[in-house]
């Protein structure tokens, strides 16, 4: 039997493989970090009172208008609280109050604009789908949903709010898939060129663990605005050269979605990031930073944390495939495990005596969809089947039939029809090249998309302190 595929949540935080401007924090990060406590408990930077609070009272009012919706001071205070708690849990250096507020306000504007666009397009996530997503999020933390709820509430958080955060992240992911992913095309000519370039490069391929600082250039920016943004990037570089902490600089100055995570992007293959980035990174030693790199989206500074070689042998390894059939009997209230094994043993005896063919018996007795095809499962590669099934299948010669094999689905008779062990490196390389090109295009396209959504949004800062922080 084939394994049921896992469907991990593709979160909006990873829109650009963590290299886009805007976006939201991942659900795994939110669940792993302590939930936001009450505002009075938050560990704020010295002299910082989160928006919406005062020393004696808390008054709610409009902080920012985004198109036809508002972000209130209370919402801003809650988001500030959550992010400060997460940064504290990660031992991240806290930027100044003004820089932290600016980052959070921008983060909320981009998120709100995307959710509005998704709503206009009819993107919805119903409660049934959300329930399944919550099960997966809890499983990522090695918890049940109830344990996740209990932990959030114990730490002063709201399970209902966390659940809505997950709903919003799924909605934004679907929006990205519609507006970016589905529109990306990779031609065969591009794949040919990519492979030719790879073959021509004698240097060993590497994976790099990187962090980034992005100073974004607004769409249709004037030369004066571009010059101002460049000066900002140059100021960041000056501070880095004098020993400033990269993560703190990212949290303070970066306009990318990963700013509040210290700019951490993670591991990337050098052929899956924009070439201008790869060219700069391969010249570095771990711990060093690139010069300022200008792209369409802005000015980038990248830090190389680690570098490691990519095992080429795995990519070139031959893949063994097995063409198999099976007969499945499921254990039910009317069919015990003992009866299932006994019945399969009888069927095997008929096969051994050539009284029936495997296909005939599968059509008559098998309890799954493959029965209509005579039990045919098609060509299987390692990892397609459950471990118990795969191990039993591996011990069979072509034409041989197993005894009863137990898996979580029930009891099986397995027949190996034939095997082939082909060097599929050519097809595999083409598929990997296509994926690498697609991922590279997604990085650039998703960055453009989020920038366009932000630039098209009508944004009005109502609070004086936010006007100053723009």
Question: What does the model show?
Answer:
- It is a single chain.
- The chain has 3 domains: 12-182, Triger factor/SurA peptide-binding fold (Orthogonal Bundle), CATH 1.10.4030.10; 203-314 and 429-469, Chitinase A, domain 3 (Roll); 319-422, Roll (Chitinase A, domain 3).
- Helix 2 (73-89) packs across helix 3 (97-120), helix 3 (97-120) crosses helix 6 (159-179) and helix 7 crosses helix 15 (425-456).
- It contains 16 helices and 11 strands.
- Helix content is 46%, strand content 16%.
- With 470 residues, the protein is α+β, with helices and mostly antiparallel strands.
- Residues 1-58 and 312-317 have low confidence and may be disordered.
- A hairpin with a 2-residue loop joins strand 1 and strand 2 (69-72).
Structural class: alpha+beta
Strand tally is 11
Shape: elongated
Gyration radius, in Å: 28 Å
Mean pLDDT: 80
Attribute tags:
Chitinase A, domain 3, 3 domains, 470 residues, 4-stranded antiparallel sheet, elongated, 46% helix, 11 strands, Triger factor/SurA peptide-binding fold, alpha+beta, disordered N terminus, single chain
List the helices and strands and how they pair.
Layout (H helix, E strand, L loop, with lengths): L26 H6 L29 E5 L2 E4 H17 L7 H24 L6 H14 L4 H10 L4 H21 L8 H13 L5 E11 L6 H19 L4 H8 L10 E6 L5 H7 L11 E2 L3 E12 L2 H5 L2 E11 L7 H16 L5 H8 L10 E5 L6 H8 L10 E3 L2 E13 L2 H32 L2 E3 L2 H6 L1
Antiparallel strand pairs: 1-2, 1-11, 3-4, 3-6, 5-6, 7-8, 7-10, 9-10
Helix pairs in contact: 2-3, 3-6, 7-15
